[in-house]
Amino acid sequence: MPTRVLVTLQPDADPGEVAAALTALGALEVQPPRPELPDVLVTDIDEEQHPAQAWATSATQVPGVARAEVDQLRWSM
According to the lineage, what is the superkingdom (predicted)? Predict the structure, then answer.
């Protein structure tokens, strides 16, 4: 089961470019920002290949990313 990581964008970051970089980093899926969370990308990762917290830490190094955190509600289900 994939683990969800919430990725907050820096102001003026291009969501498409950040999504492409997160996919290259190993994200299975990257959902674009939604009206209720206009600066957040929702990513799914395979925790068997990428431990969630380590992947989130790596994601913070991607240009345009302000913060990345494991979605605790989704992850604990």
Answer: Bacteria
